[in-house]
Amino acid sequence: MDPSISSRRRFIVNSALATLGLTALSNVSVLANSLDGSLKTQLDFFKFPKTNDLRKPGLQVKSVEVIGTLYDKSELTPLPNTDIRVWHISPDSEEVGHMGQFTTDENGNYRFTTDFPGHEFGLKARIHFSVAAKGVNHLDYLILDNQQVHYDHVQWRDVNSLGDIARPQLVKFDSNGLAITKNILI
After folding, report:
1. What three-state secondary structure class fits 142?
2. Whole-prediction pTM value?
3. pLDDT tens string 16-53
4. Are 151 and 138 in contact (CB under 8 A)?
5. In the chain, where are the structural domains located?
6. Where are the alpha helices (DSSP H) in the chain?
7. Domain 49-185: assigned CATH number
8. Smallest Cα–Cα separation from 143: which of 170, 163, 108, 165?
9. Which among 85, 84, 86, 82 is positioned nearest to 105, based on CA atoms?
10. In terms of Cα–Cα distance, which of 110, 115, 146, 106 is closest to 129?
11. Is residue 135 left, alpha or beta, with left meaning phi > 0 and alpha meaning psi from -120 to 50?
12. Which residues pair with 109 in a beta bridge?
């Protein structure tokens, strides 16, 4: 075999592997930065503004009002005076820009209002919830589209046996926005 052909092939193969490696490393780096930097910072309890109105002025999008109760799922009793953190992708970008923290009342009830969330490519809009109670850090989310609200199959499996109390429900849908009931069970 001609040594120049072998050398050329080796160069092409090595270049392709190097390009593939750099592409994979840059994607891993972006993912790691978003998980270690952005998401970790946003989940830092002290970085969340204490508010139950997450709407941003000037955005021309539907609003979403979420009302619910935080329950201990083993006893189905409300958890009063417990902090809840919520966040989602802003409707005008692909970044998390809407977030807030609030406390359930003496009956475990909570309420917040936000702009209709943006979404990641290929996924429906989601609102994420984080609750630290009973020695557990509980993460949950709500999946939305313009006329429905639901869980995914994993959430469904975990709470289906609890019946209607665990299912999110669309209470109102009109041109101004949505009203949703979502109980959180930890």
Report:
1. strand
2. 0.73
3. 555 544 343 333 333 333 334 444 444 554 589 999 99
4. no
5. 3-43, 49-185
6. 3-33, 40-43, 153-159
7. 2.60.130.10
8. 170
9. 82
10. 110
11. left
12. 69
